[in-house]
Amino acid sequence: MDFSTLPVDSLTKDQAVFELERLAREIAGHRQAYYEHDAPRVTDAEYDALERRNLLIEQRFPALVRPDSPSRSVGSAASARFNKISHNVAMLSLDNAFTDADVADFLGRAQRFLGLADQQDLACTAEPKIDGLSLSIRYEKGALKYAVTRGDGKEGEDVTANVLTIADIPRTLAGAGWPDLIDVRGEVYLSHQAFAALNKAQEVAGLPLYANPRNAAAGSLRQLDPAITAQRPLSFFAYAWGDVSAAFATSQMEAVACFAAWGFKTNADMVLCPDVASLLAHYRDLGLRRAELGYDIDGVVYKVNDLALQERLGIITRFPRWAIAHKFPPEQATTILDAIDIQVGRTGALTPVARVRPVTVGGVVVSNATLHNEDFIAGKALDRVTGQAVRGGKDLRVGDHIVIQRAGDVIPQIVDVLVDRRPADSQAFAFPHVCPCPLQTPAIRGGGDGEGEQDVVRRCTGEFACPFQRLRHLEHVVSRKAFDIDGLGPRQLQDFFAWGLVKEPADIFKLEHHRADLAGKDGYGEVSLNNLFAAINQRRDIDLARFIFGLGIRHIGETTSGVLARAFVSWQAFDEAVQAAASHRPGEAYRKLEGLPGLGPAALKALLDWAASQTEAGAFTGQGNLFDDVAENLAKLRLKEVAMPARKALIGAFGDWGSLVATVKQAASQRPGDAFIALAALDGMGEVACEALLDFFAEPHNQGAVARLLAEVRPRDAEASRQDSPVTGLTVVFTGSLETMTRDEAKAQAIRLGAKVAGSVSAKTDIVVAGPGAGSKLAKASELGIRVMSEAEWAAFVG
Ligand code: IVH
Questions:
Q1: What is the CB neighbour count within 10 angstroms for residue 557?
Q2: Per residue in 614-646, pLDDT tens?
Q3: d(CA 142, CA 547)
Q4: Does ligand 1 lie within 6 Å of residue 38's CB atom?
Q5: If 0-12 CB within 10 Å is exposed, 13-18 middle and 19+ buried, where does residue 497 land?
Q6: CB 90 near ligand 1, within 6 Å
């Protein structure tokens, strides 16, 4: 009998008995997996949903509450591996709020309980809910006596030896004013950085990887050998207390300030809020900064600030009535993979997309997820961070139960597949070998020119013939960062393309000639056509950067387009530079030598200079051919730049001296010209992008299309970057919120002044401009000793 999908309202009493029994068993199982084995079997959100269902059923049928109900206990029994210590004051859990209304209800309940007038504000603290494990540390006369995990809330595990290895936890309390006896409580956690390093070490040692920082922290704290714990950089935030011999503060804020004075780390993002609105504002702010904090948080904890009021509010079985955890929407959920669709991109790449049963993830309903490429579906792709096969090598099949993740603005990802729930008749996905377009042209792997991309991406070979590629290209042309034409999106382009009115970019600007054809069509009334033509005509004058980006050249993205526009200022100068570069492109022989690992630029130059200096009748043809010994002849050249690694590379690549000489000689005549080198040397260009740019303009079809487009539109000259500002050539990172301008304005200004703007802080960063709320980037900057400025200092600096 399975009632698990019936809504709580519709359960009969008998069904409720079954459900409560099932939930008690299931929740106990999950708690054991989570707390004792540090290996959760479901997501936090799924677990919360089970607890909630249990609670709702109990509220409807109070008589059915079981003695072993999960609502009556927290955590899991302490394991037998450690000595047990009981908590004099129970370690409570927190009630959860999921919506703004839940938070208002919490405050309303507390106000009513205290008999405060409804509108009277109840000041509360708001602080991150750290996703770690709670710990209680006993201090007597300022000296650490023991440390205990939460366990079931009444008794926990004695982890003193391990806790003594945690740098954030003082062995003796600093300062003064601490009570003779106090249990300081807080959260043990692992930073993202420490987590990544730990998993790397686990991998090197051939040990299993931890699923997330919380499990890794729990696993680290509960090591039987403290020497192992000592190698794991655990951190600790103090935020609460248990048994105390004397009152030491009158408010939550004051108490946490005491902890800081006694030598504990406390959380900088704890604030005092006068009302619900400011609690929610802090919640949203932390939600936005969540990824930058450097450690996992899963919500925000609100606590009534006044300790006398806390005392009066007291507790309800497992929770204090004076605190609540406002959870972030779950970032993971399980759902079903309904279908795998193949989309054709602008460059012909066949991109698989997962269609999933709609599910709420991270507060948004998700029905599509990225599948990257065919190796990803097959479980053969490697995870960028861990270097391990994705999903432990498991493939994805239509009908599979999958775990989907949506964090921040990132496209939803499939992070796991539940193979034990796989339908019996499922089949491995066969990735198509032809383009899904009507032409069904073969789609082949290889031919990519990005790093390692050649093997992964399957591309349609139809190029300009493939209607899907053409349509994608047109969509790119009108997209927001390119021509940005209002009212002209994929749907309209699809129509115009199907009716034969728009086949290439220039046709968009000739659309008005077809007014009569369009007037009769559904959805194209006179007013909307007038608006459309007006929007199109507005874009006949277009920024050079947008124009270049709109051409849709491989490897020439928005940023690079901006760099090109500022470097050349006018279309004419850009065009001339491209032609000049094209006239002396590196040839195949040159590229072969350049690509040899071990043959650095200095060795290559020396070799080519040598080849260029030899005449046809010179020494190198004669005796070289006689001996045919690459190593010996290389030694005889006496080129000091061509040292052992370079020689080895050449010996490995060429079987005989004759072919080496032929290639080197050919390469000497194929050296890239100055124009090519200058183009490739532009910021963010590089040789791959430079080659792609030249390839694009070498193609007659593209030349024609660009010329026809230029007959319709006029690229506006760009503003050149300043070469003489105080920040020219420097790399700048903006973090935190800015007050006098938006982030985009700040970036644009910096670029105008000749600076480079980066998204993350590294050793290459010169300046970090930090506004209020700056988090991990600011921390990194001070760690690396990078110059940090406020917005006002930056403004003064750049004048
Ligand atoms: S206060 C009686 N503050 O969340 C209140 N708990 O779901 C004691 N947690 O068991 C807890 N960050 O492990 C508090 N800033 C914070 C917290 C926090 C994380 C954990 C703690 C607690 C669990 C409740």
A1: 14
A2: 765 444 544 444 455 788 888 888 888 888 888
A3: 69
A4: no
A5: middle
A6: no
Task: Give me the percent of the chain exceeding a pLDDT of 90.
Answer: 54
- Closest ligand 1 atom to residue 303 Cα is 1
Q: Is 665 in the pocket of ligand 1 (CB under 6 A)?
A: no
| Residue of 91, 106, 130 with the most ligand 1 atoms within 8 Å of its CB, for mutation | 130
- The identity of residue 452, as a single letter, is G
The verdict on the CB of residue 187 being under 6 Å from ligand 1 is yes
**Closest C-alpha to ligand 1, atom 2:** 92
State residue 300 phi and psi, 5-degree precision: -130, 135
Say if residues 633 and 607 touch (Cβ distance below 8 Å): no
Please tell me whether residue 768 adopts helix, strand or coil conformation. Answer: strand
CATH superfamily of 84-327: DNA ligase/mRNA capping enzyme (3.30.470.30)
CATH of 546-585+675-716, one of 3.20.20.150, 1.10.150.20, 1.10.8.60, 1.20.950.20: 1.10.150.20
- For CA atoms 597, 603, 609, 610, give the dihedral sign: negative
Q: What is the mean pLDDT of the chain?
A: 89
User: Rounded distance, CA 226 to CA 216, Å?
Assistant: 15
pLDDT at 454 over 60: no
Is 1.20.1300.10 the CATH classification of the domain at 466-539?
Answer: no
Question: Which residue's CA is the closest to the ligand 1 atom numbered 13?
Answer: 134
Atom of ligand 1 lying closest to residue 237 CA: 15
Binding site per annotation, positions? 44-48, 93-94, 127, 150, 187, 303, 327, 435, 437, 460, 466
User: Which distant-in-sequence residues (6+ apart) come within 8 Å of 56 by Cβ?
Assistant: 8
Q: Which of 13, 84, 129, 756 is catalytic?
A: 129
Q: Decide: pTM greater than 0.70.
A: no
Bridge partners of residue 235, in order along the sequence: 189
Instruction: Show the tokens assigned to 262.
Output: 């006694």
What is the spatial distance between Cα 536 and Cα 502, in angstroms, rounded to a whole number? 13
Q: 127 CB less than 6 Å from ligand 1?
A: yes
Q: How far is the CA of 104 from the centre of ligand 1 (A)?
A: 20
Paired tokens of 409: 């603005």
- β partners of residue 127: 301
pLDDT band for position 32 (50/70/90)?
A: confident
Choose the weakest-confidence range: 81-85, 682-686, 766-770.
682-686
- Which helix H or strand E contains 690, and what residues bound it? helix 686-698
Q: Distance between CA atoms of 159 and 611, rounded to whole angstroms? A: 71
For residue 93, the CA-to-ligand 1 centroid distance in Å is 7
Ligand 1 within 6 A of 87 CB? no
Give the model confidence (pLDDT) of 261-276 as tens digits. 999 999 999 999 999 9
Sign of CA dihedral 647, 454, 684, 691: positive
Residues in the chain: 799
- What confidence tier does 479 reach under pLDDT thresholds 50, 70, 90? very high
Pocket of ligand 1 contains residue 733 by CB under 6 Å:
no
Atom of ligand 1 nearest to the CA of 133: 13
Find the 127 Cα to ligand 1 centroid distance in Å.
Answer: 10
Q: Which CATH architecture has domain 731-798?
A: 3-Layer(aba) Sandwich (3.40)
- Residue reference for tokens 């299931």: 26
Q: Is 129 among the catalytic positions? A: yes
Q: Specify the pLDDT at position 656.
A: 83
Distance from residue 325's CA to the centre of ligand 1 (Å)? 8
State how beta strands 458-460 and 443-445 pair.
antiparallel
